[in-house]
Specification:
The chain is mainly beta. The protein has one domain: Beta-galactosidase, Chain A, domain 5 (Distorted Sandwich), CATH 2.70.98. It is 5% helix and 40% strand. The protein has three helices and 30 strands. Strands 11-12-13-14-30-24-23-18-21 form a nine-stranded antiparallel β-sheet. A six-stranded antiparallel β-sheet has the order 17-28-25-22-19-20, with no helix packed on it. It has a five-stranded antiparallel β-sheet with strand order 1-2-3-4-5, with no helix packed on it. The longest helix is centred in the first third of the chain and has 6 residues. The protein binds beta-D-galactopyranose.
Length: 354
Amino acid sequence: MIKQSLFGKMPNGELVKQFCLTNNHDVSVEILNLGGIIRRWLVPKDKHSPTDIVLGFDTVNDYLSDDSYLGALIGRYANRINQGRFSLAGSNYQTDTNLGDNCLHGGSQGFNSKVWQSTVLSNGDNPSIMLQLSSPHGEQGFPGALSVKVIYTLTEQNRLRIEYFATAEQATLYNPTNHSYFNLSGHSSGSVKTHQVQILASHYTPTDKNAIPTGEIAKVDNTPFDLRSMTTISQPLGSSHQQIEYGNGLDHNFCLDTYVPGSKVAFYVGKIIAIDSDHDISLNIYSNMPGMQIFTANHFVNKKGKGGALYQAQQGVCFETQFYPDAPNHAHFPSATLQADEEFYSVTEYEVLF
Ligand code: GAL
């Protein structure tokens, strides 16, 4: 079932709609046509008081004035591009730079800040909506007009499937993701440090102080980045490893072992579990992408969220499936180039178990 309502208005008067997708197990996910933002995700662990497992805001203005991308779709390029510079098919490009000298999440006017065209695809079992956006040639400095489509489906297996499609008029870069911050004990419950996590990654991409990859694809063995068996999040966060200091916590791209170039199948890549007296909710993650940024909201201080909640550092954790950061400047990273005659497809699924 899908319920549609008005969430608010953009500064230019454009309407921001909200779609509430509910399956037959009473799991419900609220999605805005602004940035494709996942605003609320209710898990009926307790029928009388469902748990809302994602961080979010209550107004359009809160979303537009914040720079943490809560729940949003990211484009054209998730994560960093060093100095916003890259070359493609013999031409050099300079994108918008919005984080020091670097480009973060597609520049200052990324896909997260756009109102997308929205269509309900299925209003019965497995409720589904489609969001579409046209990005003109040169937008934020990226070449080639790009048509993008994202389909959100809430399945009867309690999975939220996110499928990304795109075509371009000339060779360009495309690296989309979703930037949800999860807290399986509830968005207002405090830190996720006691959650346990597993990530099937034998390697990660270390960075410099500005979170730009050095180019190394490093083994996780004997480092706080070895999360291949269930690990309490406080363990890596408490480490004095230089990379954890650089990131002020976890803010790193993991190279997923399951990646098969060209595969359209979402493989199991990891999970997170909250174990406390009221909860025991877990989330399995599936994707066909080569990388996943794990980010523990390291810079949050009294961020005013939904219902007056005050979000602090480590109150949520993101699992941003993606190509590796700065891939266009590292020829040995899986390529994020989308050719003119190609159809881009990627898929990530988040499955709640409760
Ligand atoms: C993450 C990124 C962080 C931070 C965050 C947005 O994807 O890795 O460093 O910029 O987005 O606040």
